[in-house]
Amino acid sequence: MPASRKGSSNYLISRVFNTTAAFGMFRPGDKVLVGVSGGPDSVVLLHILNAMRDRLPLHLAVAHLNHGLRGEASNRDESFVRNLAGKMGAPFFCERIDARALAGVQGRSLEETGRMARYEFFHRIADLHGFEKIAIGHHADDNAESVLMYLLRGSGILGLSGISPVWGSRIVRPLIRLHRKEILRYLSENRLSFVLDSSNEDIGFIRNRIRCQLIPLLQNQYNPKIIHALNRLSNLACAEEAWLVSITTPLLQKATVREETNRRELCIRILRKHPVGALRRILRQAVERVKGDLRRISLAHVDAAVKLIYGDNDRARLDLPDQIRIQRDQDHLIISREDGCRQRELSDSASSCGFCYTIDSDTRSLFIEPMGAYLILTHLENSGFQMLKNAGNSVAFLDRDCLRFPLKVRNPMPGDRFVPLGMKGRQKLKKYLINRKVPRKVRSRCPVLLSQDQIIWIGGHQIDDSVKISSKTRYILKIELLLA
User: Which residues contact 375 (CB under 8 A, 6 or more apart)?
Assistant: First the structure.
């Protein structure tokens, strides 16, 4: 490819080619499924990969998932991508989903649901049609936003590593070293059409607020090169994370008693020899080996597992998101993936056991022994209650100013009443659960949270209307029930 001025199309194509070579993204002749939304990034990705084929023969195809969120605008995007694939002579794969309904069923945020649905679709098409690689259009600005988002969440080194150029054996991100301005310049020079997704401007999503509000503020008032600084931090964190993983891996192997598909058994006596920093990493790596990734696994989950190791209960159990169970069996810690029905069962021994625990203002986690479950508590400032939508029934967000500590959590009692969110009249708890077809066995073990003897949350179901979040809320108490 001839030498060209910095910033020109040929120069950017060379940059992408060098990125793919540096990370070993492709081999000559690879079948590559390109995820194309129709936006600027994915259009440039497809165009550059097509332009690279004179140096690196690739067989390209296009995949597009219609989330069905914007009516005719979503269908317009689908038609645009279909026509784009046709102009390039690339096979086209498309599906439609109702992402909003799916989010309600799964109990996840709309953003997380869409992301998971896309990757599931991409991998399924790749499996069916033999694609070796799946190319995604993430770039350097996306990486900076991710680093900043994880930094704000209090992430460790792994989160600060940002978006990996290569994820697993299939996902590759050839544009990861290009910046948004370069991508827009490429579109202009080559007169490429694209579509814009209006949801990318919706500041109800934290990533959009970071891109549209926080990063411009940092650029204007603190560091005009904040994008470069965050990417440099990402590169440093990525190198250190790889080094720490190389140290942790032998420690995990030494602690492993038995390893099977979807199951790993560890020796607690060996685990207890390590400082908590190393222990957290060992546990995270063990969970990743069983689960396949660490999505939705937070520091609170890991610390709850650490408490299992050091606790006095040698039969305790902890259920994490996505059907992951951590169970202590005397001197062994068992991490496994359970089927959906079994995952949601509570301990049989809890059916006849009452319980009552006190929660102080400084309590961060509580193990409810008869249930074999944890409550995780996080105190937050209200930075915009829109982000709390679609959190799922296992998570409650309460107006902290409406609470009076200490709180209590207990099993349901005869005569319990509360005002379900959005209603005015008090309702019997028993009737509320029966109307929602909650089995009697589960009803008797449902955790009930109280403030000054007033019910404020039915764990896993509904909050009381008196503690709901509003635009006047200053501080929030987030409570997560770790059952599924």
Answer: 359, 365, 366, 368, 409, 447, 459, 479, 480, 481, 482
User: Which amino acid appears at position 75 of this protein?
Assistant: N
Length of the chain: 484
Dist. CA 281–CA 299, nearest whole Å: 10
Q: How far apart are CA 285 and CA 260, in angstroms?
A: 15
Residue 409, beta-bridge partner list = 357, 449
- Pairing mode of beta strands 133-135, 475-482: unpaired
Q: Residues 419, 427: contact at Cβ < 8 Å? A: yes
pLDDT in tens, the chain (484 residues): 444 555 588 999 999 999 999 999 999 999 999 999 999 999 999 999 999 998 999 999 999 999 988 888 899 999 999 999 999 999 999 999 988 887 766 656 677 788 889 999 999 999 999 999 999 999 999 999 999 988 887 778 888 999 999 988 899 999 999 999 999 999 999 999 999 887 777 776 778 889 999 999 999 999 999 999 999 999 999 999 999 999 999 999 999 999 988 899 999 999 999 999 999 999 999 999 999 888 778 777 888 889 889 888 777 778 777 778 898 888 999 999 876 434 344 333 333 446 778 888 878 878 776 676 778 888 887 765 545 554 567 789 999 999 998 899 988 888 899 999 988 889 999 999 888 888 877 787 789 999 988 999 998 889 999 999 888 888 899 998 875 3
> Which residues is 320 bridged to in the sheet?
324
Per-residue burial over 339-359, b = 16 or more CB atoms within 10 Å of its CB, e = otherwise:
eeeebeebbeebeeeeeebeb
Say how far apart CA 9 and CA 12 lie, in whole Å. Answer: 5
C-alpha 423: how far from chain center = 32
- DSSP state for residue 228 in the 8-state scheme: H
For residue 94, list its beta bridge partners: 64
- Provide long-range contacts, Cβ within 8 A and 24+ apart, for 104-110: 104/390, 106/392, 107/390, 107/391, 107/392, 107/393, 107/394, 108/390, 108/392, 109/389, 109/390, 109/391, 110/69, 110/389, 110/390
Mind giving me the DSSP string for 440-476? HHHHTT--EEEETTEEEEETTTEEBGGG---TT--EE
Tokens encoding 163: 């978006």
**Cα–Cα distance, 464 to 445 (Å, whole number):** 19
